[in-house]
Amino acid sequence: MKALNAPTRVVDLILTCLGGPACQCVEARAVGPRYNRKVKTFYIETFGCQMNAHDSEKVVGTLVTEGYQQVETPEEAELVFYNTCSIRDKAEQKVFHRLQQFQRDGKGKKFAVLGCVAQQEGEKIFEKAPHVSMVCGSASYNQLPQMLVQLDAGNKRVTGLSLDTDQTFETPLTRRDNPHRAFLTIIEGCDKSCAYCVVPFTRGPERSRTSASVIAESRKLAEMGYSEIMLLGQNVNSYRDPSPAAWDFAKLLDEVGRVPGIRRVRFTTSHPRDFVQPIMEAIDSNPSLCNHVHLPVQSGSDRMLEAMRRLYTREEYLQRIAWMKACRREIAITTDVIVGFPGETDEDFQTTLALLDEVEYDSVFSFKYSRRPNTHALALDDQIPEEEKTRRLAVLQEHQRQIQIRRNASYVGRVEECLVEGFNKATGQWIGRTSQHKTLNFVRAAAPSAEDLLGRYVDVRVTRSGPNSLAGECVN
Ligand code: SF4
Question: Can you name the residues that pair with 417 across neighbouring β-strands?
Fold first, then answer.
């Protein structure tokens, strides 16, 4: 059996202590008796967004603290966790497919469904997949230690499904996967009610962390060697500091960018309605805040925006884009688009294509509308046939591809600073990420060992471009 994640940081060394009777380390003394049982193994698979990815990092931290050991495959594990996504029907089906695979040969293992599908389907999961013993939504992750005790005691149906919470799920023992960029949740849940979206039903009401706890964690991350922080939330712009300091998102963003050692700050995701001008002023004046904003538009048609209950018009959205374009630094702009929302005419769709031309996005995440339980749009007539949704999606993606070819070509000849994230042995190229969140593959004249540049910031001259990435040569 191979345990995962060789310790690379102080926190990992603490996390990997399983506190046997002879162990004298601080962590083992602090937590004492809970390690006096047999070590259990777990496997976790994560579906969906960056919020889910980061939740899994926190769940792993919680499990390891509770004395569990992470393994690489579900076959090796005694406890198998699926941290699920229900934003689209396909993602949800995937989870049940995984569970089915173990219906017969999962004997001796326990299965837990976490996240959005858990919250959405609740105890029905026990009927659909009787070998599942734990169902827990993200608003109940604070209860995981108690739930694990119940599971250990032989309880066959353990649940954590309450959405009635004002708590956020914070754990100082988070096991972060990326050695250079750290996710940091600042707000959980969502109080909007977009007509197509399950999130308000699966993640509960909005609740923000105190600014003091966010700054303290940022400082700790910098001390641990992280240089880039990604602030996370379903809607980071509606961040409201619950402490008397009462910071808004612009102030928090600026202050995180001023933490010594933090060189880059990103954030996702934003709602246009809450995207106010002070956010762009903070980005424009603080060089640690990256030259990139992801602002989901979903449709370019006012009629569709109203049907989707998005709470802004095309003109209001374009006002936000104008603030970005007025910045002294060039801001890369990315978005999300849904095609085939009920009632979307070809004219509405053409209006969305025209918006792509007007904004000239650096990248677009585009999806076909998918009917989701509990949502307002479920009851809407005039569903668009699947083939038409597929056609529109293909047209939109090709349209955007041409825009990206033009956008990326404008980078050729420029020198961009990259955080080096990897090395591709097959091509002999380093993989870097620019402040605009573009992938920039590059070569360096002096052949270094593969570890030489990882985690460092280097300047790269862009020599070539494609629709999805840039290529170049290191100049320092
Ligand atoms: S803002 Fe809308 S799309 Fe985003 S999570 Fe909330 S309800 Fe869903």
Answer: 459
Strands 40-46 and 68-70: parallel
d(CA 314, CA 293): 17
Task: Specify which residues 157 forms β-bridges with.
Answer: none
CATH for the 181-409 domain, from 2.30.30.40, 3.80.30.20, 3.90.550.10, 1.10.10.10? 3.80.30.20
Residue ranges per domain, the chain? 10-160, 181-409, 415-474
Q: How far apart are CA 31 and CA 149, in angstroms?
A: 15
Segment 434-449, tens digit of pLDDT: 999 999 999 988 766 6
Ligand 1, residues 86, 188, 194: which to mutate, most atoms within 8 A of Cβ?
Answer: 194
Pairing label, strands 470-474, 207-208: unpaired
Q: Does domain 415-474 have CATH number 2.40.50.140?
A: yes
Query: What is the predicted pLDDT for the residue at 91?
Result: 79
- Residue 77: what pLDDT? 95
Amino acid at residue number 397:
Q
CB 174 within 8 A of CB 57: yes
- Looking at the CA of residue 298, tell me the nearest atom of ligand 1: 3
Q: Compute the chain's Rg from CA coordinates.
A: 23
Domain 10-160 has CATH 3.50.50.60: no
Per the CB < 8 A criterion, the answer to whether 190 and 207 are in contact is: no
H-type alpha helices, 257-301? 277-285
Q: Residue 233 and residue 274: Cα distance in Å, rounded?
A: 13
CB 198 less than 6 A from any atom of ligand 1: no
Q: Which two tokens stand for residue 223?
A: 């001390």
The DSSP line for 6-32 is: ---SHHHHHHT----TT---HHHHHHG
* Ligand 1 pocket check for 190: Cβ under 6 Å: yes
Closest-lying ligand 1 atom to the alpha carbon of residue 203 = 5
The pTM (predicted TM-score) of the whole model is: 0.89
Mutate to test the pocket of ligand 1, among 49, 201, 271 (most ligand atoms within 8 A of CB): 271
Token pair belonging to 75: 């076959």
Longest Cα–Cα distance in the chain: 72
Any residues with CB less than 8 A from the CB of 38 and at least 6 apart, and which?
A: none
Check if the beta carbon of residue 241 is closer than 8 Å to that of residue 208.
yes
The residue behind tokens 């173990």 is 102
pLDDT in tens, 295-315: 999 999 999 999 999 999 999
